[in-house]
C-alpha cells in the first residue's frame, strides 16, 4: 500500500514538473529567473536542461532602445550583471548557445562572468558595443575551449581577437561577420584559424584582397556566404568596386559560394548575372 502511494506521489510530482517546464518554455530570461524564486518545485523546474540550450538576451521581456550604447552606464551594467548571474546559475553547463542583445554595452566583467559559468558553449553571438580588453577576451576564451561558432561585430574585429580564439578554441569552424571585412581580419583568420569551414559575411563592405587571401589559403573552407555585400578595394588612392566574376577569376575555391542572384538586390555588386 505504501509503495503504491509512493509511486503515485512520484508520478504526480513528475507530471507537475513536466507541466511547469512546458510553461516555462514561453518565459523570457528575466521572468524565468523570477519564477525560480517562487518555491523549491519551481526552482527545480526552472533548471531543466531543455530550457537552457540557448540563452537569448534579445528576449529579456524589457523595452530596450534599438541603438548603440543602449545599456551604457553603471545602473545598466549592474542590471546586465544580475541577469547574467541568474541565467548562468539556472542554466550553467546546459547553455550551448549564447546570443547577446546587439546593442548591449558589454564589459570585461560581463564577458568573464558568463564565460566561467558556461563551459560547454558552442555558439556565441557578440554585441556591437562595449569595452573589452585582450585580457577579457583571453579569460573568456580560455573557458570556452569547446566553442565552434562566433558571430563577430565591429568591437571584436581586432586581429588580437583572432589570435586569442586560435590559441584557445581549437574547435572553431564557423565565423560570421556583421561588420566590414578587411584585410587585417583576413590575415588574422588565415594565420590563427586555419581550420575554418564556414565563413559568412552579409550586408557589409568586403575587402577584395582580404577575401581572395582567405579563399586561396584555407584548405578546409567549405562554405562562403557573401549575400548583399559590396566587394571593394582601395588601390593607388582610388576606391574600386568588384563583381563576382572578378572574384572567381582570382581564387581557386571549390566549395559552396553563396551570392546574390536576383537583380532586385540593390546593396550588392556581387550578383551572378554581372
UniProtKB/TrEMBL annotation:
Residues 9-55 form the F-box domain. PROSITE patterns: FBOX. It comes from the Eukaryota. This is F-box domain-containing protein.
Amino acid at each position: 500500500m505504501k509503495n503504491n502511494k509512493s509511486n503515485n506521489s512520484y508520478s504526480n510530482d513528475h507530471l507537475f514538473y513536466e507541466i511547469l517546464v512546458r510553461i516555462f518554455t514561453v518565459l523570457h530570461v528575466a521572468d524565468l529567473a523570477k519564477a525560480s524564486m517562487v518555491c523549491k518545485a519551481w526552482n527545480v523546474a526552472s533548471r531543466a536542461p531543455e530550457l537552457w540550450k540557448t540563452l537569448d538576451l534579445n528576449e529579456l521581456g524589457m523595452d530596450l532602445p534599438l541603438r548603440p550604447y543602449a545599456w551604457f552606464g553603471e545602473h545598466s551594467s549592474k542590471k546586465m550583471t544580475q541577469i547574467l548571474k541568474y541565467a548562468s546559475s539556472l542554466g550553467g553547463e546546459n547553455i550551448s548557445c549564447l546570443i547577446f542583445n546587439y546593442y548591449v554595452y558589454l564589459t570585461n566583467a560581463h564577458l568573464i562572468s558568463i564565460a566561467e559559468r558556461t563551459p560547454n558553449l558552442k555558439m556565441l553571438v557578440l554585441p556591437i558595443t562595449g569595452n573589452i580588453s585582450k585580457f577579457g577576451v583571453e579569460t573568456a576564451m580560455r573557458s570556452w575551449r569547446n566553442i565552434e561558432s562566433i558571430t563577430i561585430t565591429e568591437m571584436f574585429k581586432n586581429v588580437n581577437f583572432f589570435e586569442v580564439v586560435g590559441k584557445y578554441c581549437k574547435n572553431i569552424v564557423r565565423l560570421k561577420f556583421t561588420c566590414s571585412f578587411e584585410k587585417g581580419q583576413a590575415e588574422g583568420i588565415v594565420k590563427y584559424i586555419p581550420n575554418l569551414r564556414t565563413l559568412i559575411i552579409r550586408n557589409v563592405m568586403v575587402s577584395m584582397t582580404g577575401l581572395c587571401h582567405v579563399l586561396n589559403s584555407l584548405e578546409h573552407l567549405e562554405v562562403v556566404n557573401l549575400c548583399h555585400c559590396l566587394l571593394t578595394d582601395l588601390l593607388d588612392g582610388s576606391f574600386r568596386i568588384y563583381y563576382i566574376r572578378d572574384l572567381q577569376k582570382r581564387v581557386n575555391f571549390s566549395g559552396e559560394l553563396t551570392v546574390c542572384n536576383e537583380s532586385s538586390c540593390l546593396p550588392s555588386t556581387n550578383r551572378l548575372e554581372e
